[in-house]
Amino acid sequence: MHNKTLTINEIERMIDDLNTVRDTITEALQIPCDDISSTIAGKYIELQNVVETADYLNSQGFRVYTGGCRKGDRKYISNDVADTITDINNKGELFTVARALFNYNKGKISTGALIRQLRNIKPG
Predict the structure, then answer these.
(1) Measured CA distances, 48 to 1, 40, 65, 71 (Å)
(2) Are residues 73 and 21 in contact, defined by beta-carbon separation less than 8 angstroms?
(3) Which of 123, 99, 104 is nearest to 26 (CA)?
(4) Of 44, 48, 54, 79, which one has the greatest count of Cβ atoms within 10 A?
(5) CA proximity to 84, closest of 24, 124, 33
């Protein structure tokens, strides 16, 4: 059995990494959401769950425009949320943070990759 000990430097680096994640998420949540796409990204950053984000949107009365379907507009589903977050045409810090968290939560990137991505985000 191997016991790994942590040095003070390693612990300080871990704390710095966690502070980066916290600060980036906190800053992203301060960005005004002025359309449905940014509302989806912002709520996903807060909840980090596509089903809960879709439930929130539906509870607030948001609907997906179906383009004249006989049944009219429909409620949001998790795929709508995921599609909005992963759409590369959605630019800006809010979407970059949401995409990084989405990819991390889906197991597509490691913790280290998440932290690197969040460190590289340019505010504003």
Answers:
(1) 36, 11, 24, 30
(2) no
(3) 123
(4) 44
(5) 33
Tokens standing for 23? 């600060």
Query: How is the chain split into domains, by residue range?
Result: 8-119
Residue 73 in tokens: 């507009």
Beta carbons of 39 and 95 less than 8 angstroms apart: no
Element (H, E) at 49: none
Helix (H, G, I), strand (E, B) or coil at 8: helix
What does the pLDDT look like over 15-65, one tens digit per residue? Answer: 999 999 999 999 999 999 999 999 999 999 999 999 999 999 999 999 998
Residue reference for tokens 């439930």: 55
Q: How far apart, in Å, are the Cα atoms of 53 and each of 38, 72, 76, 83?
A: 12, 22, 9, 13
